[in-house]
């Protein structure tokens, strides 16, 4: 595992990296690999104690002991739990927000594995009707790197055992409380009962689709020619599939991040008349002016136009 991760180049000697450390087998494996490849002085760990589980403080102590053993620095955060809202989304925002603050331009490494990849694809397949949902997680997205995507959860456990590294178990991972747990405990075993190579086939399909996505992205680049707008009549003349891809690209650019759901509104966007606007998901607005379609971030304002009405 060490040499394969080193060869992939997501971790490199003396390259600063902040490791997201929960204390579980995957992040424990990742932290040890980072210390061995990048060097302890180039590695720092971030542990977020959300206080959501009885074992949270014990998890934090484990991370402190692990970092002391490996000779890497540790930053611990104790965010205040919100009274309402989606706890998983809040925890994710807290974790990545703290990571962005602490990375100082270096990489941020997450311990996502091939097992996580399969669970992510299956969850998105059920919850998000889009082609992009099937592409899975990338080894690198900006400063975020995932050096363990080629390895299964069983392989990270074997690595830790071989290195004499203990890890913590999060009992909620095996429960049906959250959707990801239901995918792990129910859906994946059901697919393996249908075909013993189900997991490998999902991963192979995602790899094929990512290769094809590169071709489609190049076609969108050619169509837009570096512009952040397109003539509406020209868009209407494109094959429907390409028009959807162009719309999604423009919406993502306006949002500054993926804005899923825009492509499914293609018919509404294409039906806009001149000097009209349409509000779309994720705070994005499609605007037609002078026959040209542009996307922008919408800002809350009194009396702003309703979707699809003249501006």
Q: Would you mind describing this structure in some detail?
A:
The protein is of the alpha/beta class and 311 residues long. It folds into two domains: 2-194, HUPs (Rossmann fold, 3-Layer(aba) Sandwich); 227-311, 2-Layer Sandwich (Uridine Diphospho-n-acetylenolpyruvylglucosamine Reductase, domain 3), CATH 3.30.465. Helices cover 47% and strands 14% of the residues. α2 crosses α6, α5 packs across α7 (179-194) and α8 (198-224) crosses α10. The radius of gyration is 22 Å and the shape is elongated. Mean pLDDT is 90; it is low at 301-311.
Structure summary:
47% of the residues lie in helices and 14% in strands.
* Strand arrangement in the largest pleated sheet: 3-2-1-4-6-5
Can you name the CATH architecture of the largest domain? 3-Layer(aba) Sandwich
How many individual domains?
A: 2
- In terms of DSSP E residues, the strand content is 5-15%
The geometry reads as: elongated
Which ranges are low-confidence, i.e. pLDDT below 50, for 5 or more consecutive residues?
301-311
Mean pLDDT: 90
Give me the count of strands.
Answer: 10
Under CATH, the topology of the largest domain can be stated as: Rossmann fold
Give the proportion of residues in helices: 40-55%
- CATH secondary-structure class of the largest domain: Alpha Beta
Structural class: alpha/beta
Q: SSE string, helix = H, strand = E?
A: HEHEHEHEHEEHHHEHHHEEE
Count of helix runs: 11
The biggest beta sheet reads: 6 strands, mixed
CATH superfamily of the largest domain: HUPs
- Rg from Cα: 22 Å
**N/C terminus separation:** 58 Å
């Amino acid at each position: 595992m060490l040499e394969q991760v080193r060869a992939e180049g997501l971790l490199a000697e003396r390259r600063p990296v902040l490791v997201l450390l929960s204390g579980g087998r995957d992040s424990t494996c990742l932290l040890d690999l980072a210390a061995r490849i990048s060097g302890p002085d180039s590695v720092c760990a971030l542990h977020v104690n959300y206080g959501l589980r009885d074992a949270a403080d014990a998890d934090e102590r484990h991370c402190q002991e692990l970092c002391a053993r490996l000779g890497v620095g540790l930053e611990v955060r104790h965010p205040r739990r919100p009274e309402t809202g989606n706890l998983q989304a809040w925890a994710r925002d807290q974790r990545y927000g703290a990571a962005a603050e602490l990375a100082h331009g270096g990489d941020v490494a997450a311990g996502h594995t091939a097992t996580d990849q399969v669970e992510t694809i299956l969850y998105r397949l059920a919850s998000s009707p889009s082609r992009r949902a099937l592409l899975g997680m990338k080894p690198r997205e900006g400063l975020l790197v995932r050096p363990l995507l080629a390895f299964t959860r069983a392989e990270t456990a074997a690595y830790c055992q071989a290195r004499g590294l203990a890890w913590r178990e999060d009992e909620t991972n095996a429960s049906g409380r959250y959707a990801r747990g239901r995918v792990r405990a129910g859906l994946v075993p059901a697919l393996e009962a249908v075909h013993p190579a189900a997991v490998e086939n999902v991963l192979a399909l995602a790899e094929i689709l990512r290769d094809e996505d590169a071709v489609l992205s190049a076609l969108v680049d050619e169509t837009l020619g570096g512009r952040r707008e397109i003539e509406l009549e020209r868009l209407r003349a494109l094959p429907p599939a390409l028009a959807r891809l162009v719309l999604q690209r423009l919406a993502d650019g306006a949002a500054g991040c993926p804005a899923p759901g825009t492509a499914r509104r293609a018919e509404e966007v294409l039906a806009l008349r001149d000097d009209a606007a349409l509000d779309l998901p994720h705070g994005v607005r499609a605007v037609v002016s002078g026959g040209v379609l542009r996307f922008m971030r919408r800002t809350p304002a009194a009396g702003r136009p309703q979707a699809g009405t003249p501006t």
